[in-house]
């Protein structure tokens, strides 16, 4: 069953505008924590030369992503992959035939490796603040394995930035998140930058976005 996130209609165009500046022209994009699948469906259509692979750890989210894919008309939107960002073992080897062929299962849930899987970009929207810190660690760790050199890892969401006053609405949001789950909450950008460096990434861009969000671009440094 398709799910809906009201914020998607408000932020998908600004997100697409930034992605048009940062994404490669073609290749394989991995979306982590794709949620409802609305962004994947919209962005896959916007970037038809990119194979768009949405993932999520939640069964209801996977079902929603699959439903958006079936209803859509973008052959480059691939079947969703069951993946937890926090997992130390991402399915980093995937048969090329599964990813590239149009005749795919509705959901990729079990992958037997017969070739190396390398991605040309990774996108993660609104996960870092609504998950445990281990998920962000896993995000950079996993991307260090699957992204090619200089490939972008792009994050969207609210953050706490040193030297920049946090909007009252973001402070309220941070408190509400921690009331729901004490391990959630807005992250300090300096902590995310430090983590990125530990896993071989360097922040190359920051974009101010609507509703006090930002987009961050990290690129994998040569090893």
TrEMBL record:
GO terms for biological process: methylation. It comes from the Bacteria. PANTHER family: UPF0585 PROTEIN CG18661. Signal peptide: none annotated. The keyword tRNA-binding does not apply. Keywords: Methyltransferase, Transferase. GO terms for molecular function: methyltransferase activity. Gene3D superfamilies: Vaccinia Virus protein VP39. This is SAM-dependent methyltransferase.
């Amino acid at each position: 069953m398709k799910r809906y996130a009201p914020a998607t209609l408000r932020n998908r165009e600004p997100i697409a505008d930034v992605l048009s500046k940062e994404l490669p022209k073609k290749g394989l994009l991995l979306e982590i924590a794709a949620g409802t699948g609305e962004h994947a469906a919209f962005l896959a259509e916007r970037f038809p030369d990119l194979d768009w692979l949405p993932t999520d750890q939640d069964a209801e989210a996977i079902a929603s992503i699959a439903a958006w894919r079936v209803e859509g008309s973008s052959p480059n939107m691939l079947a969703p992959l069951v993946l937890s960002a926090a997992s130390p073992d991402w399915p980093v080897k995937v048969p090329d035939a599964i990813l590239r062929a149009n005749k795919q299962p509705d959901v990729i849930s079990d992958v037997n490796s017969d070739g190396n899987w390398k991605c040309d970009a990774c996108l993660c929207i609104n996960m870092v603040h609504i998950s445990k810190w281990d998920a962000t660690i896993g995000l950079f760790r996993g991307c260090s394995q699957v992204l090619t050199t200089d490939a972008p890892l792009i994050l969207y969401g609210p953050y706490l930035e040193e030297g920049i006053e946090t909007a009252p609405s973001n402070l309220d949001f941070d408190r509400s998140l921690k009331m729901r789950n004490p391990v959630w909450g807005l992250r300090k950008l300096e902590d995310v930058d430090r983590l990125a460096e530990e896993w071989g990434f360097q922040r190359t861009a920051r974009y101010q976005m609507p509703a006090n969000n930002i987009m961050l671009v990290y690129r994998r440094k040569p090893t």
